[in-house]
Amino acid sequence: MRTVIVGAGVVGLATAYELLKAGHEVVVLERDLYGEGPSHGNAALVTGVLSFPVPVPGTPLLAAKSVVSGNQAITVRPQLSPGFIAFLLRMAWATTKANFATGTAAQDILTRMVLADYAGYVADGLEFELHEGGSMHVFDSRAAFEAGIAIFDDFPDIKSRITVLEGREAVHKVDPNLADEIEYGYFAPGDLQVEPVSLMKALVAAITDQGGQLIEQARVIDFVTTNNQVSAVITTNGVFEADQVVIAAGVGSRGLAAKLGYSLPVFSGGGYSVDVHFDDADRKPACSVMTDESHIAVTPLDWGLRASSGMIIGQGSATVSAKVAAQLVADLQAVYPDVPLDGVQPAWAGLRPMSADGVPVIGLVPGMTNAYLATGHAMLGLTYAPSTAKVVRALMEGTAPASYAMLSPTRFGGGK
Predict the structure, then answer these.
(1) 297 vs 64: CA distance, rounded Å
(2) Contacts of range 299-303, beta carbons closer than 8 Å, 24 or more positions apart
(3) Positive or negative, the Cα torsion across 281, 282, 288, 294?
(4) Residue 302 near residue 279 (C-beta atoms within 8 A)
(5) Could you give the CA distance from residue 207 to residue 351 in angstroms, rounded to a whole number?
(6) What is the DSSP letter of 35?
(7) Which three-class secondary structure state does DSSP give residue 276?
(8) Less packed terminus of the chain by CB within 10 Å, N or C?
(9) How far is CA 75 from CA 39, 60, 306, 319, in A?
(10) Which of 110, 96, 88 is nearest to 56 (CA)?
């Protein structure tokens, strides 16, 4: 069986690797160069805990405030297109208590697979940078801490994966380098640090070693379809026949799905990060840290650390101003005052695929019988890449449990 995968970010590459192991002939098409999209500069955190979709209860208020202030965990850049307005309305609907619970259950299907899937990569012999440092979410006040912990109350299985940290001693026992005033948090001991570029290099090497093809500079122009099946993918770098197609092109998946007659409710969510290079291991964070007030994530890596931002929904271009990057560095220094800053690198920016309910979109394109979507991972593409690949494989092989329907694009309706 010949499977053509559109998109060579971490999700597309993980899917190619999984399907090659299943015996598929695999061709990966990338419009630019592999790994240069949002996979490149993400937070480098792999979590087995954060199953909560981006639109949590209260998100509409935060989003409204962000239009004015721009200083929220979720920021909205308004657009006047009907599609974007419908997207925001669907997102608001997803924040009701019942819908948030449904979205969390759907996303947790993937989350429960994550740590075992990465252990599988190591067992397979893939060589990439991985650390088992865990992650910690920290809070500036007791009120924020109590609100953050309360989110877990309706999800006891997810809550069992964290350790609540109350008081300075408990927090600083996990990471002594945190700012003295931080006294509240929770710790996810199973979480990982994975440097994404090293992982993608390992996946590309494994794909090519197993006979897969990676075709770069191959922008998809159209699909050849007959009787609701894709038979070929037409690109700027040739025509590729296909028995199955997987669209894993991040934000670009929306335009590709439209070519197949489906209006996919995925829009861009801008993000940015700053790397700080330094050698003093004693001054690095002990684990990945997410902050409640400044909404940044900090992850230690071999060469230093990476600090990254929240989600800017509707941002149209992958850019970040010098002022915003400087604020990220200032927020980093507020959390880790002893981190040396002489090794600060130029800021990176990317556009991440955000679905209307915040849950990844994995399943057949509505109206098609052999074209699959694997997108909408928001800030968790690195985390969910291997799990997404396993879901796609199960769907193709007809072995998927009924629960995988919760990830399907059919939840949004539409199609031919």
Answers:
(1) 23
(2) 299/43, 299/44, 299/45, 299/193, 300/131, 300/133, 300/193, 301/44, 301/129, 301/131, 301/193, 301/195, 302/129, 302/195, 303/275, 303/277
(3) negative
(4) no
(5) 25
(6) T
(7) strand
(8) C
(9) 20, 10, 21, 15
(10) 96
Q: What is the mean pLDDT of each run of 10 residues along the chain (416 residues)?
A: 97 98 98 91 95 79 42 66 86 92 97 98 98 97 96 96 97 98 98 98 98 98 97 98 98 97 94 96 97 94 94 87 94 97 96 95 98 96 98 98 98 76
Torsion of CA 349, 53, 192, 121, to 10 degrees: -90
Query: Which residues have C-beta within 8 Å of that of residue 173, sequence separation ≥ 6?
Result: none
Distances (CA, A) of 172 to 185, 256, 394: 10, 48, 43
**CA distance readout (Å), 296 to 92, 127, 357:** 23, 28, 22
Contacts 24+ apart (CB under 8 A), 59-68: 59/91, 59/92, 59/95, 60/91, 60/92, 60/95, 63/88, 63/313
Q: Would you state the structure tokens that stand for residue 50, as one six-digit string?
A: 């954060």
- In single-letter form, the type of residue at position 391 comes to V
Cα-based angle 265, 28, 199 (whole degrees, multiple of 5): 90
Packing angle, helices 82-94 and 59-69, rounded to 10: 130
Q: List strands edge to edge, sheet with 229-235.
A: 220-226, 229-235, 238-241
3-state secondary structure 186-228: EEECCCEEECHHHHHHHHHHHHHHCCCEEECCCCEEEEEEECC
d(CA 128, CA 196): 8
| Contact predicate 163/187, CB 8 Å | yes
Q: Output the CA torsion sign for 264, 270, 276, 277.
A: positive
